[in-house]
Amino acid sequence: MNQMMKIVTVLCCVVLGLVACTSGEQGAQEPPETKANSSAATSEASKTSAPQAGNEETTQAPTTTAQPPANTGTITGRVTDEDTGEPLSDVYLAVGWKSVQLTAITDENGRYTVPNVPAGEAAPVFGFHDGGYRYRASSFDDGLDIMLKPGETYTYDFSLTLLNEPESEPEISNPSLTPDTAAPGETVTFEVTASDGEGGLSPEIFASNPQIGKLVLLEPTDQQDRYRAEFTIPADTPPGDYPFAFFAASNGCYVNSAFPGRTLSVTG
Question: What is the sign, positive or negative, of the torsion defined by CA atoms of 37, 120, 107, 205?
Answer without folding.
Answer: positive
